[in-house]
Amino acid sequence: MRVLLTGASGFVGRHLHRALADRGDDVFALDLRPTPGVQTGDALDFFRHDDTRFDLAIHCAAIVGGRASIDGSPLGVATNLALDSWYMRWLVRTRTPRAVYFSSSAAYPVELQQPGDVRKLYEEDIDLDQPERPDATYGWAKLTGEKLARYAEAEGCRILVPRPFSGYGEDQDDCYPFPAFARRAREHQDPFEIWGSGDSTRDWIHVDDLVGATLALLDADVSGPVNLGWGRATSFNDLARIMCAAAGYQPTLKHRHDAPQGVHHRVSDPSRMLDHYMPTITLEEGVRRAVNV
Description:
By secondary structure, this protein is an alpha/beta fold. It has a single domain (2-169, 204-230, 269-280), classed as 3-Layer(aba) Sandwich (Rossmann fold). It has helices spanning 11-22, 43-49, 66-72, 74-94, 136-154, 177-186, 207-219, 236-247, 271-274, 283-291, and strands at 2-6, 26-31, 39-40, 56-59, 98-101, 158-164, 166-168, 192-195, 201-202, 204-206, 224-228, 234-235, 253-256. The strands form four sheets. The protein has a seven-stranded parallel beta sheet, with helices on both faces. Helix 1 packs across helix 7 (207-219), helix 2 runs parallel beside helix 4 (74-94) and helix 6 runs parallel beside helix 8. The chain is globular, with a radius of gyration of 19 Å. The two termini are 34 Å apart.
């Protein structure tokens, strides 16, 4: 297929770029950052002015940066609204038949992710007609993007909407917790710093499985929202202990209660994904790779 891939130099984008090329797809890769094999350019300008028709479009371009960015730069994150709205307009204008819009677990209502609530999150927990408060402006941007995707679908473009939970990998920027923890473990830091109380939980999925699931869902012609995760709740305290055990030491855990930590409990029900893809890289294997990189 002829594929447009925006954000091709980013964490998910570069893994998708490699996987698509390995499949033999003809990929037009676009990113603001100069990268070998990637066209340097602004996805926003591309969506406004380009009329090229592709078989498939995958939109990964976004302003990201972990919890500090979500809490500390709400207007910057809101720029994603412009990117996503022009993406949908471009899909309709060019009559692109198939597309991917990456949403996020941040789109889920924060009221379902509070202390004492250990439920798993289902795709149906988001009602786009009567949305509840998501996680900060980043969550609102993703909710709005999903709403726009519904309109674009009504114009004839079938859109897959993956909702990744906590994606990670060995080459992820360490402004995210997983690679930051891995670096601390490799350096045998003691005490080992954890933002917040450490008992909040996340559902970790390796980037190779995130990419594998996305492509499997495309091959199965799935559209609409699909959770990407393992359905396994792991607290930050437990993640730190797994990391440090892999690094061969036992530090004191130091909790920074003044630092942002996000919602308390965020775990997926991955049943819809599991109909088409079974993840292969366990958290323990992902930790081993990250600590020994």
